[in-house]
């Protein structure tokens, strides 16, 4: 159907004509009547090729494989029966003789589009070449699908096809014969299946029906987790004031508040809430039962241009400070640059200026807009537009790398305050669901060995990211084709920072880099209810626990896949004399483009000296 070849074969029989309006209606109605039949054998292919392909598939999907094996297996293999489809996955469209350009080169093969992913199987007999050119990825990774060529080109009018840009930096092109103008079906199927919310379809998570031995929705219990930290105690109380998400819509239902604030009454707490952006009052998210040190998180105070004060908010922070006798001054780690915090006053925000017994420390982590803007040159460095383009220089000075560095710097300061002074700290940014989550959760990875276990790491993500309202749907653009100004790889940055610590402390983590890579893909995939929507209230209203699967069902069922064989439990924090220096996460950033390895592989920075436990 689609190829530009020296001696093209006769075109296949045309599909029955379908009016454009009727075709688009079929897309919106679930695509069932728009599904193509399984592809025929490749033109010119041999029986040997077909039998070898079927053998590869049957060996990778044998009948005795577990559910986790089926969910993790490389599905990018040609098979006429399509037995690689997962439970709930449906084939939507197929094309043979696809002419595809990726960062690894140009090749021809078969393409399949399901309601979950895009699969390309190249026409090659050599297994190494098959592995090189094959790809298979969730459609949720696709950021943009656009046509190129024909009337839009001024130079080469034979350059004609579809450009696919992914959110993880992969870019591919599908070439067509411009004389046949035969790209429209592929274009519409790609868009309709990649952007379900735009086309009013459900996420794949609601169709995915794989059975697992472990129910990941049972993994995180907030009361059990706070009990592990020694809460409640004489200073902290587990509150159900947010039952039904009626108090703060973007917070979890279970909150830990100072016992003195609870004793002061609901009206007192409501006044604190009304002074904080989106009502996100300071709440405890980590506690050391031995030292009494604690991490609290919140949003910014709404001081405004006139520095409007709130006596209740000041009293509330004093209650937090006095809950730990080691806290002489409550350090407020404001993730923002001071200039940005002042600029927020023009929009009614601000910071805790003039609070008694409090000290603000500004960590200079820039906004989502600055981070998003820095991605473009970073992508250009690692993934030139075509194979022939020359790569850019200067990855060490890339702003995206600098944004990672300041997260590591800020975490180092927070950890030092918790360990050296055994003090309470408050962490916030503007809204408390982006940079705040990065800092609190990374600090907990460093200081608490439980969060370096496989189970604990899952609990940490559920607590600090999912339950406290990181806006996964908006930041990752789930199901929509409008890039908007709110997309930003906040969670990706944090995973990168976790890898930085794994690189320096390779035996301190029970899980391996495979888990990080898996999560980096699955957060885009829309296969799990875990990462859908923007907060717990939205996931609850959409029935995620009842109608979708948790990503931890797979992780805990297949935990051997994600276990670090070098793991050696250590109870002490992962301390260094200075902040870690960013090293490129090679396994992630070079996986689509082998040339990127040469660009980032040689970048090295001297790492700080480690502080051993006995020297503390």
Notes on the protein architecture:
It is a single chain. Helices cover 35% and strands 14% of the residues. The chain is α+β, with helices and mostly antiparallel strands and 616 residues long. The chain has two domains: 91-201, PH-domain like (Roll); 216-584, Protein-Tyrosine Phosphatase, Chain A (Alpha-Beta Complex), CATH 3.90.190.10. α11 packs across α12, α12 (399-420) packs across α13 and α13 (435-447) runs antiparallel to α14 (454-467). The longest helix is centred in the middle third of the chain and has 22 residues, at 399-420.
Short description:
This protein has 616 residues and is of the alpha+beta class. It is built from 22 helices and 14 strands. The protein has helices spanning 20-28, 47-60, 67-72, 127-133, 184-194, 222-228, 259-264, 266-274, 311-322, 338-344, 368-382, 399-420, 435-447, 454-467, 472-476, 490-504, 513-525, 536-541, 544-547, 551-557, 586-589, 594-600; strands at 91-102, 105-114, 117-122, 135-138, 142-149, 160-166, 171-175, 236-239, 255-258, 283-287, 294-298, 330-334, 358-362, 425-428.
CATH architecture of the largest domain: Alpha-Beta Complex
Total domains, how many? 2
Share of β-strand residues? 5-15%
For the termini, the CA-CA separation is 68 Å
Helical proportion, percent range = 25-40%
| Chain-averaged pLDDT | 85
Oligomer: single chain
Keywords:
616 residues; alpha+beta; PH-domain like; Protein-Tyrosine Phosphatase, Chain A; 2 domains; seven-stranded antiparallel beta sheet; five-stranded mixed beta sheet; 22 helices; disordered N terminus; phosphatidylinositol-3,5-bisphosphate 3-phosphatase activity; PH-like_dom_sf; Myotubularin phosphatase domain-containing protein; Myotubularin; Myotubularin-like_Pase_dom
């Amino acid at each position: 159907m689609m190829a530009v070849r020296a001696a093209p074969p006769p075109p296949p029989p045309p599909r029955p004509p379908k009016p454009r309006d009727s075709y688009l209606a079929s897309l919106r109605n679930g695509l069932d009547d728009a599904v193509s039949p399984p592809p025929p054998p490749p033109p010119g292919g041999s029986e040997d090729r077909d039998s070898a392909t079927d053998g590869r598939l049957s060996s990778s999907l044998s009948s005795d494989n577990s559910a986790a094996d089926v969910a993790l297996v490389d599905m990018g293999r040609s098979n006429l029966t399509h037995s690689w489809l997962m439970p709930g996955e449906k084939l939507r469209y197929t094309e043979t003789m696809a002419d595809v350009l990726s960062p690894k080169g140009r090749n021809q093969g078969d393409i399949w589009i399901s309601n979950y992913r895009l699969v390309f199987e190249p026409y090659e007999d050599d297994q190494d070449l098959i592995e090189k050119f094959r790809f298979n990825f969730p459609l949720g990774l696709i950021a943009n699908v656009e046509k190129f060529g024909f009337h839009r080109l001024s130079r080469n009018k034979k350059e004609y096809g579809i450009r696919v840009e992914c959110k993880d930096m992969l870019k591919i092109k599908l070439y067509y014969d411009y004389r046949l103008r035969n790209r429209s079906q592929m274009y519409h199927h790609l868009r309709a299946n990649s952007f379900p919310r735009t086309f009013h379809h459900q996420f794949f998570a609601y169709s995915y029906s794989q059975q697992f031995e472990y129910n990941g929705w049972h993994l995180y219990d907030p009361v059990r987790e706070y009990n592990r930290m020694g809460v409640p105690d004489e200073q902290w109380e587990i509150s159900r004031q947010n039952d039904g998400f009626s108090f703060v819509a973007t917070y979890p239902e279970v909150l830990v508040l100072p016992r003195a604030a609870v004793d002061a009454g609901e009206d007192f707490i409501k006044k604190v809430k009304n002074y904080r952006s989106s009502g996100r009052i300071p709440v405890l998210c980590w506690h050391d039962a031995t030292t009494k040190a604690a991490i609290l998180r919140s949003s910014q105070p709404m001081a405004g241009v006139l520095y409007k004060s709130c006596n209740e908010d000041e009293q509330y922070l004093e209650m937090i400070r006095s809950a730990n006798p080691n806290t002489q001054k409550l350090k407020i780690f404001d993730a923002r640059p001071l200039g940005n915090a002042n600029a927020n006053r023009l929009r009614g925000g601000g910071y805790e200026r003039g609070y008694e017994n409090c000290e603000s420390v500004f960590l200079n982590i820039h906004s989502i807009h600055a981070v998003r803007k820095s991605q473009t040159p970073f992508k250009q460095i690692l993934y030139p537009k075509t194979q022939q383009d020359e790569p850019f220089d200067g990855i060490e000075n890339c702003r995206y790398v600098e944004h990672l560095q300041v997260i590591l710097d800020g975490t180092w300061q927070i950890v030092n305050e918790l360990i050296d002074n055994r003090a309470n700290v408050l962490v916030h940014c503007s809204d408390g669901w982006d940079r705040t989550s990065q800092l609190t959760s990374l600090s907990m990875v460093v200081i608490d060995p439980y969060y370096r276990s496989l189970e604990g790491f899952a609990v940490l993500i559920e607590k600090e990211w999912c339950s406290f309202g990181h806006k996964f749907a908006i930041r990752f653009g789930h199901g929509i084709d409008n890039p908007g100004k709110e997309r930003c790889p906040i969670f990706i940055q944090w995973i990168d920072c976790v890898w930085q610590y794994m690189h320096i402390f390779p035996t301190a983590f029970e899980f391996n880099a495979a888990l990080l890579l898996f999560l980096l893909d699955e957060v885009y995939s829309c296969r799990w209810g875990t990462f859908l929507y923007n907060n717990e209230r939205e996931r609850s209203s959409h029935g995620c626990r009842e109608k979708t699967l948790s990503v931890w069902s797979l992780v805990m069922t297949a935990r051997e896949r994600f276990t670090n064989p070098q793991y050696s439990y250590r109870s002490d924090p992962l301390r260094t004399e200075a902040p870690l220096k960013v090293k490129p996460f090679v396994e992630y950033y070079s996986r689509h483009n082998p040339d990127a390895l040469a660009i980032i592989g040689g970048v090295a920075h001297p790492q700080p000296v480690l502080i051993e436990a006995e020297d503390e």
